[in-house]
Amino acid sequence: MSFNWAESFTAEPVRKTSAPLVLDEVINELPLDVIECPDLRAIGEMWLELPRESGDRLPDWAMFNPAMISRYLSKVSILHVGDWRAGEVEFTLYGDHLTKNIGNGRPLNLEALRSDAAGHVNYCDIVTRVGRAIEFAAPQYARKTLCWDGHDDVEYEVLVLPFKPDQTGMSRVMQPATCQPRPD
Description:
Layout: H1 5-8, E1 24-27, H2 38-49, E2 77-81, E3 89-94, H3 96-102, H4 110-115, H5 120-136, E4 140-144, E5 154-162, E6 171-174, E7 177-181
Antiparallel strand pairs: 1-4, 2-3, 2-6, 4-5, 5-6, 5-7
Protein backbone atom coordinates (compact mmCIF):
# COMPACT_ATOMS: atom_id res chain seq x y z
CA MET A 1 0.00 0.00 0.00
CA SER A 2 1.61 3.31 -1.02
CA PHE A 3 1.08 6.77 0.34
CA ASN A 4 1.78 10.02 -1.49
CA TRP A 5 3.49 12.34 1.00
CA ALA A 6 3.24 15.34 -1.32
CA GLU A 7 -0.53 14.93 -1.59
CA SER A 8 -0.90 14.53 2.15
CA PHE A 9 0.86 17.79 2.94
CA THR A 10 -1.74 20.32 1.88
CA ALA A 11 -3.86 22.86 3.69
CA GLU A 12 -6.60 20.26 3.72
CA PRO A 13 -5.37 16.69 4.20
CA VAL A 14 -6.05 14.26 1.39
CA ARG A 15 -7.53 10.93 2.44
CA LYS A 16 -7.12 7.85 0.29
CA THR A 17 -8.59 5.06 2.33
CA SER A 18 -11.40 2.59 2.23
CA ALA A 19 -12.00 3.04 5.97
CA PRO A 20 -14.93 5.36 6.62
CA LEU A 21 -13.79 8.75 7.81
CA VAL A 22 -16.86 10.34 9.33
CA LEU A 23 -15.30 13.40 10.88
CA ASP A 24 -11.93 14.97 10.16
CA GLU A 25 -11.62 18.51 11.37
CA VAL A 26 -8.08 19.86 11.20
CA ILE A 27 -6.92 23.22 12.50
CA ASN A 28 -3.35 24.60 12.44
CA GLU A 29 -3.69 26.18 15.86
CA LEU A 30 -5.10 25.39 19.28
CA PRO A 31 -8.73 26.47 19.29
CA LEU A 32 -9.21 26.25 23.04
CA ASP A 33 -12.92 27.08 22.69
CA VAL A 34 -13.42 24.08 20.36
CA ILE A 35 -11.43 21.41 22.22
CA GLU A 36 -14.02 19.23 23.92
CA CYS A 37 -11.85 17.24 26.33
CA PRO A 38 -10.94 19.35 29.38
CA ASP A 39 -7.71 17.35 29.83
CA LEU A 40 -6.57 18.11 26.28
CA ARG A 41 -7.52 21.75 26.75
CA ALA A 42 -5.37 21.93 29.90
CA ILE A 43 -2.42 20.32 28.10
CA GLY A 44 -2.85 22.74 25.20
CA GLU A 45 -2.93 25.72 27.57
CA MET A 46 0.25 24.48 29.26
CA TRP A 47 2.00 24.19 25.86
CA LEU A 48 0.89 27.70 24.86
CA GLU A 49 2.26 29.10 28.14
CA LEU A 50 5.71 27.50 27.78
CA PRO A 51 8.41 30.19 27.40
CA ARG A 52 9.78 30.84 23.95
CA GLU A 53 12.87 32.66 22.84
CA SER A 54 12.21 35.94 21.09
CA GLY A 55 10.80 35.27 17.63
CA ASP A 56 10.39 31.51 18.15
CA ARG A 57 7.00 30.00 17.44
CA LEU A 58 7.83 26.77 19.23
CA PRO A 59 9.00 26.12 22.78
CA ASP A 60 12.27 24.36 23.52
CA TRP A 61 11.90 20.82 24.91
CA ALA A 62 14.02 21.85 27.91
CA MET A 63 11.21 24.21 28.99
CA PHE A 64 8.81 21.27 29.43
CA ASN A 65 8.60 19.28 32.65
CA PRO A 66 6.25 16.24 32.78
CA ALA A 67 5.17 17.35 36.27
CA MET A 68 3.30 20.19 34.51
CA ILE A 69 0.83 17.64 33.18
CA SER A 70 1.31 14.71 35.57
CA ARG A 71 -2.42 14.40 36.06
CA TYR A 72 -2.96 13.85 32.30
CA LEU A 73 0.01 11.61 31.42
CA SER A 74 -2.24 8.65 30.59
CA LYS A 75 -3.46 10.57 27.53
CA VAL A 76 -0.04 11.73 26.33
CA SER A 77 2.34 10.25 23.81
CA ILE A 78 5.73 11.63 22.83
CA LEU A 79 7.22 11.07 19.41
CA HIS A 80 10.78 11.56 18.23
CA VAL A 81 10.86 12.86 14.68
CA GLY A 82 13.76 13.06 12.26
CA ASP A 83 12.85 13.31 8.57
CA TRP A 84 9.12 12.68 8.81
CA ARG A 85 8.81 12.34 5.01
CA ALA A 86 11.21 9.39 5.18
CA GLY A 87 9.17 7.83 7.99
CA GLU A 88 11.61 8.73 10.77
CA VAL A 89 8.87 9.02 13.38
CA GLU A 90 8.48 6.79 16.41
CA PHE A 91 6.72 6.77 19.75
CA THR A 92 9.07 7.03 22.73
CA LEU A 93 6.37 7.28 25.40
CA TYR A 94 2.65 6.67 25.42
CA GLY A 95 -0.01 6.64 28.08
CA ASP A 96 -2.32 3.77 28.89
CA HIS A 97 -5.46 5.64 27.77
CA LEU A 98 -4.10 5.32 24.25
CA THR A 99 -3.22 1.64 24.43
CA LYS A 100 -6.45 0.69 26.19
CA ASN A 101 -8.74 2.61 23.87
CA ILE A 102 -6.98 2.50 20.54
CA GLY A 103 -6.71 -1.25 20.66
CA ASN A 104 -3.20 -1.64 19.24
CA GLY A 105 -1.91 -2.71 22.64
CA ARG A 106 1.71 -2.30 23.64
CA PRO A 107 4.08 -1.33 22.34
CA LEU A 108 2.72 1.35 20.07
CA ASN A 109 5.06 0.99 17.14
CA LEU A 110 4.72 3.12 14.05
CA GLU A 111 6.85 0.80 11.93
CA ALA A 112 4.44 -2.03 12.76
CA LEU A 113 1.49 0.17 11.76
CA ARG A 114 3.25 1.18 8.55
CA SER A 115 3.62 -2.41 7.38
CA ASP A 116 0.20 -3.58 8.60
CA ALA A 117 -2.53 -3.44 5.95
CA ALA A 118 -5.24 -2.48 8.47
CA GLY A 119 -3.02 -0.05 10.40
CA HIS A 120 -1.41 1.71 7.43
CA VAL A 121 -4.06 4.43 7.21
CA ASN A 122 -3.52 5.15 10.91
CA TYR A 123 0.24 5.34 10.34
CA CYS A 124 -0.32 7.85 7.53
CA ASP A 125 -2.65 9.89 9.72
CA ILE A 126 -0.11 10.17 12.56
CA VAL A 127 2.88 10.92 10.32
CA THR A 128 0.96 13.48 8.25
CA ARG A 129 -0.25 15.38 11.32
CA VAL A 130 3.22 15.30 12.90
CA GLY A 131 4.71 16.50 9.62
CA ARG A 132 2.21 19.35 9.38
CA ALA A 133 3.05 20.45 12.93
CA ILE A 134 6.78 20.47 12.19
CA GLU A 135 6.56 22.08 8.75
CA PHE A 136 4.14 24.80 9.83
CA ALA A 137 5.87 25.19 13.25
CA ALA A 138 2.35 25.19 14.63
CA PRO A 139 0.24 23.00 16.86
CA GLN A 140 -2.39 20.84 15.21
CA TYR A 141 -5.85 20.03 16.44
CA ALA A 142 -8.04 17.30 15.00
CA ARG A 143 -11.30 15.65 15.85
CA LYS A 144 -11.96 12.57 13.84
CA THR A 145 -13.33 9.13 13.52
CA LEU A 146 -10.71 6.80 12.20
CA CYS A 147 -10.96 3.05 12.51
CA TRP A 148 -8.12 2.41 14.96
CA ASP A 149 -9.63 -0.50 16.74
CA GLY A 150 -11.96 -2.10 14.23
CA HIS A 151 -14.87 0.07 15.33
CA ASP A 152 -16.10 3.08 13.42
CA ASP A 153 -18.17 4.34 16.35
CA VAL A 154 -15.24 5.92 18.20
CA GLU A 155 -14.39 9.60 17.96
CA TYR A 156 -10.87 10.78 18.66
CA GLU A 157 -9.68 14.22 19.63
CA VAL A 158 -5.96 14.86 19.31
CA LEU A 159 -3.46 17.67 19.72
CA VAL A 160 -0.07 17.62 18.01
CA LEU A 161 2.26 19.92 19.91
CA PRO A 162 5.71 20.36 18.35
CA PHE A 163 8.86 21.54 20.08
CA LYS A 164 11.89 23.21 18.49
CA PRO A 165 14.24 20.74 16.84
CA ASP A 166 17.48 20.04 18.70
CA GLN A 167 20.94 20.71 17.27
CA THR A 168 20.83 17.40 15.35
CA GLY A 169 17.51 18.26 13.69
CA MET A 170 15.54 15.78 15.81
CA SER A 171 12.17 17.10 16.99
CA ARG A 172 10.00 15.99 19.86
CA VAL A 173 6.26 16.15 19.45
CA MET A 174 3.73 15.75 22.24
CA GLN A 175 0.51 14.14 21.06
CA PRO A 176 -2.20 14.00 23.71
CA ALA A 177 -5.32 12.19 22.59
CA THR A 178 -8.63 11.06 23.93
CA CYS A 179 -11.39 8.92 22.54
CA GLN A 180 -15.01 8.24 23.29
CA PRO A 181 -17.99 6.57 21.65
CA ARG A 182 -19.34 8.77 18.88
CA PRO A 183 -22.75 10.21 19.67
CA ASP A 184 -25.56 8.84 17.52
